[in-house]
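As a warm-up, study this chain.
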Amino acid sequence: MTHTSTHQHVARLIEHDYPHIAIDMAFLSPRQSIIPLELFLNVLDQLVGTLDGVLPIAYSPTNSVTQTLRSLTLVSRDVYPIASRYLYSHCLYLDHCTSYTRLRRTLGLNLGYHPQALHGETGLNDRFADIPQYITSVFLSPLKTDRDSSATPLVRLPQIIDLCKTIGRTLRRLALDIQPVYTVHSEIELVKPYTSENNIFLHMPNLSELITSYDALDCFPAPPPNLKRLAITSQELKETQLDFCFSISSLQTLVFLRPLELLSTDVDLVFSSYKGKSLDVMLVDVNSNHRTPTGTRTWKDADSVRIWEVDVPTSFYGDEDELILCDNFIWTEGVKGTLWDTNKRRMASWADVQRRLAGPVHLIMDGVLT
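Now compare it with the structure written out below.
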């Protein structure tokens, strides 16, 4: 693509996909003088923003935001570093082994004999020395796919640890899927990810939002110290999950899959385990599986914990695997940034359920008793 055609391509992308950006894009022509930096940054801010103000954790490679920013890196040497910073801030969507490895390579991490290694070059290139400070949000799910060559190995646990420790201090939002990572028991015992030195979450002091797979807690049992919103694709409320979720008082929103056999004692355990001021717990499942456990406590206005039910949409036929459907819902909505404000309803207390089952009789009795 020539210099002129690149300018034209960027202009077409922005004008077509972002008509709300009310700025003349003529500045992209090489014949025009350079516009003030503040104005250019304002254009980029509107480019990566959304109309409802909800930002995704990361735009995917096929998203028009990512494609536009990539095109902008080709405009000129002056525009390249600015557009690159926005790419690293908003478009780190690493969903296969090759893209994950290329980021590690860019950050100067050792690739060994990996097919993506650039032999003869080690350490962080001066050109990318300031990149880590702009990485504040990232989606990590390095799955082996058709986009990876046959020689590309699976991502291993030490490669998760070194990357997350490198970028962890600046991270504010993270979606981390450990399931595609090679984490056999022998590797875990060798690497010891549960130690304070290797527990990646302890190296993320500014992380406020985390979506993670259930198995991440087995490797990294201590949570980020200042986490506010947490979603786990777990269907259990055992000691591992309780310790991770409630060892920090800053937590404000907790999302997880509704346990198959949710009991009133589980609800009581959540109440007694939470040490913070206010927590919304969102149970994710299809509508037909939501129900109030027998004997569930009566809610009070002073409760610091509130239990909510989230309905996952199903198809007309309803023949999907419900667990996979709910798991995908958490990942999709979480990465989009819409999970926390998704439609939900307050779980009814057991006393409320009994009143509903009694029908109009309780209205008469209530009138007699008052």
